[in-house]
Design a protein that fits this description.
- The protein is α+β, with helices and mostly antiparallel strands.
- The protein has eleven helices and nine strands.
- Strands 2-9-8-4-5 form a five-stranded mixed beta sheet.
- Helix 1 (5-25) packs antiparallel against helix 10 (404-436), helix 2 (177-209) packs across helix 5 and helix 8 packs antiparallel against helix 10.
- It is elongated, with a radius of gyration of 26 Å.
Length: 470
């Protein structure tokens, strides 16, 4: 039986490589969009509308919504969002902007911004025309000579572009690299903290029980602590930055004046506060678990903060809008934990475990074996949770090659395939070789390449979540 175990593991890793695509696809489904409007896009009206009515596919957040009507020829605002309201308390999917003054003949653009149940920023614009018959025209009003309606659709029927993950990037604008960098730092912080705890408890714990010298365990623990401290710093740095870009997404003309507006009343704001709380708890754990002077209780405090961290992306991401929500939340939580244990644990193995083994290289197979068991469980959970997520909100497969977003996603899949292939190589080729010649350098070379590809996947994810989906 023992000689057949590597074949079982190899089969599992190969299956994970093929099943990774649904896991990734599930993270980028569109949940809220403009369903219809009155006036309709490109409509030509014989009289001024009494109001602008926007109907969305889900409930939207009134506090984070703005609607403005401006002249296409002069770009002057004709009506703002001061009186914006829901159609009724039981129709929170419909926004209504009354027009207190009649619009003279001419072309107009409706620009709107809102947020779905998950707090994501959505924005767009469309055009319509008022063409009042000459006999009925208001005194002094002249028809606009423009025959084309300005401000046509950017994406979707009736709707404009979509800005995702609340990072202030509109479909019609260039990528906001600062926002993408903030999200990348945010992801790295979560992966680093969860990975360090998994490595400390599960990998080093097993290695200690297997008889690796205490000095090696202590050295690896100290380096793992440093990795966790750096990750917590990244997580805390991203807290104010995420708030800034969230306010920028909804209120670009007055970001500072609306910082408090985006910190309450939405799932995103709940996630933002959880990030702050979990970061403070993890920081307290870091302070209490300092090498040589810290207590084991510090790691338990850090673990308490880590339990909250996977909730942050799920309440400020698409998982919050999936139905059934409970299943989506559970799958997303497991997905974040599993990915962090795998990539973050690999970082700790390379930067903490291998350096500590320089004085005792014979313990290398034991340490690598303990991490491999963790990685196998993590990959299995990734596949399972990814399949559930894909089942909940995967769109048409044809979107992969018929939309810019889908083609960009395929590029990411190439990076993921590279990570999977290197992981398989390390498991099938490098790990058995270490039992014969325990040389940390061999694993370090291929492992660092695998880790670099994993970081690239996180970076590409940070790019994709702020791209329009159509």
């Amino acid at each position: 039986m023992a000689c057949r175990r590597p074949d079982i593991h190899e089969t599992a890793r190969r299956a994970a490589a093929f099943l990774a695509l649904p896991a990734i696809l599930g993270a980028f489904a569109l949940h809220t969009e403009l369903k219809e409007s009155h006036p309709a896009q490109d409509a030509v009206l014989a009289e001024s509308p009494a109001a602008v009515t926007l109907t969305y596919t889900t409930e939207v957040q009134l506090a984070l919504s703005t609607v403005a009507v401006r002249s296409a020829s002069t770009d002057q605002t004709q009506a703002g969002a001061g009186n914006l309201s829901y159609l009724s308390e039981d129709r929170r999917d419909v926004l209504v902007l009354p027009l207190s003054e009649r619009l003279p003949s001419g072309s107009y653009v409706v620009a709107w911004t809102t947020a779905g149940p998950d707090g994501h920023a959505l924005s767009g614009e469309f055009g319509f025309r008022v063409d009042v018959p000459t006999a009925e025209a208001e005194p002094g009003a002249t028809a606009d000579d423009d025959t084309a309606v300005a401000g046509g659709p950017v994406a979707g029927a009736e709707s404009g572009g979509v800005t995702d993950e609340s990072q202030g990037v509109d479909a019609g604008l260039s990528l906001d690299f600062a926002a993408m960098a903030t999200r990348f730092v945010f992801y790295l912080g979560i992966v680093g903290v969860l990975g360090a705890i998994a490595f400390k408890v599960l990998v080093l714990g097993q290695a200690a029980q297997a008889g690796i010298p205490a000095a090696v365990i202590e050295g690896a623990s100290a380096r793992t602590w440093r990795i966790a401290a750096a990750a917590v710093s990244l997580l805390l740095v991203s807290v104010p930055l995420r708030l800034w870009f969230q306010a920028k997404a909804f209120f670009p003309d007055d970001i500072a004046g609306n910082l408090t507006t985006v910190t309450a009343g939405t799932a995103w704001s709940t996630g933002w506060w959880l990030q702050g709380v979990s970061g403070v708890l993890a920081a307290a754990g870091i302070a209490l678990s300092r090498p040589r002077t810290g207590a084991a209780a510090g790691w338990r405090v850090m673990a308490l903060g880590a339990v909250l961290m996977p909730i942050v992306p799920l309440v400020s991401g698409h998982a919050w809008a999936d139905d059934p929500r409970a299943v989506s939340i559970a799958a997303t939580y497991v997905h974040v934990v599993a990915a962090s244990a795998w990539v973050g644990g690999l970082c700790c193995l390379l930067l903490a475990g291998l350096p500590a083994l320089r004085q005792a290289p014979s313990g290398l197979p034991v340490l690598v074996g303990a991490f491999s068991r963790l990685a196998m469980v993590a990959v299995g959970l990734l596949v399972l949770s990814g399949t559930v997520k894909a089942w909940l909100h995967l769109g048409a497969i044809s979107d992969l090659w018929t939309t810019p977003w889908g083609r960009a996603l395929l590029i990411k899949d190439l990076w993921v395939g590279g990570v999977m292939a290197l992981g398989l190589y390390n498991w099938r080729v490098v790990r058995p070789a270490l039992a014969i010649n325990p040389s940390p350098g061999r694993l370090s070379r291929s492992g660092r390449f695998e880790l670099a590809l994993g970081a690239m996947v996180i970076l590409v994810t940070s790019y994709l979540v702020v791209q329009p989906l159509n």
